[in-house]
Design a protein that fits this description.
Layout: E1 4-9, E2 14-15, H1 25-34, E3 42-43, E4 52-58, H2 80-96, H3 108-125
Helix pairs in contact: 2-3
C-alpha cells in the first residue's frame, strides 16, 4: 500500500484584551492593531475552525519534499479568513453596480474597465497573482 504524508490545519483564534487610553475609538483600535506584545495572549479553543487538509505528498515524512498529490475536493474545507475576504470582494461588486438592480442601462465599456480593476482585488483576496495557475 502506498504511503502519504497528510498535512491538516485548523484555525485557532488567539486574542489579547487590553485597555487603551486614546482620544477616540479609531485611535484605540489602531493602537491595538499596532501592539506587538502578545505575551498575555489567550487561545480560544471553543472558536476553532474546522480541520481541513492543506497538503498531501506521496511517501513517508514527505511534506514539502515528496511528490505533491492533489487534495480531493471534499477535504478542502473553508478557510474562514479567505471566505471573509472573498465575500467582501463580492459585496463590493454588488455595491458598485446598482444599475443592475434598477434595470438601468449599463455601459459595456465601463463595465469592462471596472472589471479589470475589480479582478485585481479578487485575485489578491484569493491569494493569487496574475498568471498563477492554481
Amino acid at each position: 500500500m502506498p504511503l502519504f504524508t497528510i498535512e491538516t490545519t485548523y484555525d485557532l483564534p488567539v486574542y489579547v484584551q487590553r485597555t487603551y487610553h486614546a482620544p477616540d475609538v479609531a485611535t484605540a483600535c489602531q493602537m491595538a492593531i499596532d501592539e506587538e506584545n502578545w505575551e498575555s495572549a489567550k487561545k480560544d479553543y471553543d472558536s476553532c475552525g474546522p480541520t481541513r487538509v492543506t497538503g498531501i505528498w506521496k511517501g513517508r515524512d514527505a511534506a514539502y519534499s515528496g511528490p505533491v498529490v492533489s487534495i480531493p475536493e471534499e477535504f478542502f474545507g473553508v478557510n474562514p479568513f479567505l471566505a471573509d475576504k472573498l465575500l467582501s470582494v463580492v459585496v463590493a461588486a454588488i455595491d458598485a453596480w446598482p444599475q443592475f438592480d434598477a434595470d438601468e442601462e449599463v455601459s459595456g465599456a465601463d463595465l469592462v474597465d471596472w472589471f479589470a480593476q475589480w479582478r485585481t482585488s479578487a485575485m489578491a483576496a484569493a491569494g493569487r497573482s496574475a498568471g498563477s495557475v492554481s
